[in-house]
Amino acid sequence: MAETTGEGPQGAPFFNKDRIKNSPEEEAKLETKHFWRIIDAFRLYRVNIQEHVKRAERQFLSLPKHHQDLLPDVLSNLARISQCADHNQDIMQAIIHNSFHMFENIEYGEREDPRKVRPSTTFDMDKLKSTIKQFVRDWSETGRKERETCYKPIIQEIQKIFPSDQCDVSKVSVLIPGAGLGRLAWEIARLGYICQGNEWSFFMLFSSNFVLNRCENVNSLTLYPWIHQFSNNKKSSDQTRPITFPDVNPQSLPLDADFSMVAGDFVEVYRDPDSWDCVATCFFIDTAHNVIEYVETIWKILKPGGVWINLGPLLYHFENMADELSVELSYEDIRTAIVNYGFHIEVEKESVHTTYTENDHSMLRYIYDCVFFVARKPADVYCNGREEEDDHLQSTPPAAKSPRREGTDTMT
Ligand SMILES: C[S@@+](CC[C@H](N)C(=O)[O-])C[C@H]1O[C@@H](n2cnc3c(N)ncnc32)[C@H](O)[C@@H]1O
Predict the structure, then answer these.
(1) Binding site membership of 294 for ligand 1 (Cβ less than 6 Å)
(2) Atom of ligand 1 nearest to the CA of 265
(3) Tens digit of pLDDT for each residue in 348-377?
(4) Ligand 1, residues 284, 291, 309: which to mutate, most atoms within 8 A of Cβ?
(5) Is 183 in the pocket of ligand 1 (CB under 6 A)?
(6) At a CB cut-off of 8 Å and minimum separation 6, what does 200 contact?
(7) Which of 95, 179, 240, 377 could be bridged to 302 by S-S, CB 3.0 to 4.6 A?
(8) Does any domain span residue 411?
(9) Segments forming the whole domain that contains residue 145
(10) In which residue ranges is the amino acid composition biased (Basic and acidic residues) (predicted)?
(11) Domain for residue 148, yes or no?
């Protein structure tokens, strides 16, 4: 196993990226290329924002002089946006500085031509801007309200199903696929459960590695997450207002906490049957090409008697992507499939209002009308030809860091 870098409170790696090396050389090459493409996006962030600012300046300066004279603060606000972008760039540099050797067992090697930073696509830049907003949701005081609506119902349900006064929570394993910047998984580990976050995107992985392993001092860092939003600002200063992070010390987990993050595509990485007591998905199931594949994977990896807790909308990520499989099912259809698979739905709320990386000063704000459910894989399902006992409360921990296979898909 290769070098370990990011470390948890026990010196345990927060990140490991296990692969079975049975893929062709070309696959490794493609992934390395992808790795550098995302590094380049982080590097080119400032350039991208400056281009936008320069365009805004040009547009303003093209107005008739008497119009410009009516707007004495516009250029100074654009200059301020520019400064904020410089500051954000410093954080982007710190993130990538800590990303080169972050995986326990994989090194991405040198880029083909180190002098060549390729221009980033709008798609990658949008992903990076969303990742910056994810810092607000997961690691700032500003995001607290949003976390209360999205993460709290999941955490409370876990505590209800696996109460610490009735079972040894240090033996209860919880998996969070699509963990984003890791706050939900971190909170669950803080309560004493074994918790593993899984994430696919290098944007998220680089950023969560940074915040989890390199940011100890509470509110010591600043980001300007709203400078990318040129529309729907009531005040110019709304666009340049800062957030500080992290609102808690991510290194403050109890010494015996069992918390890890694993990189890779959920359906490729998690193949070991009957491994987890709980799988919790938050704003995740709509990231699937085929959501039934997620249902199938969750069913397979849950121990008999294990639970799947879900909260989120159905904003299908691949809906508008040409050449991508995207099966856009209604909740009604997904529910039917879940029940037909054999899950017992134990809790169901069809209307939980939440936000997602909300800018609470914006003139345009989205509310998600989420579904929340708890679905149990019955304890008496037949596994390997024998009926399993309902043992979820005395469960043994899964092989959380056992070798996992990562797929051939590139990460985004
Ligand atoms: C909408 S975000 C939600 C993040 C987090 N759960 C939250 O509530 O803030 C969905 C996340 O799932 C990740 N993701 C998408 N497809 C994935 C896959 N196949 N395996 C693992 N993660 C995936 C994305 O990179 C993204 O970070």
Answers:
(1) no
(2) 20
(3) 999 999 999 999 999 999 999 999 999 999
(4) 284
(5) no
(6) 178, 263, 264, 265, 266, 409, 411, 412
(7) 377
(8) no
(9) 26-108+115-377
(10) 403-412
(11) yes
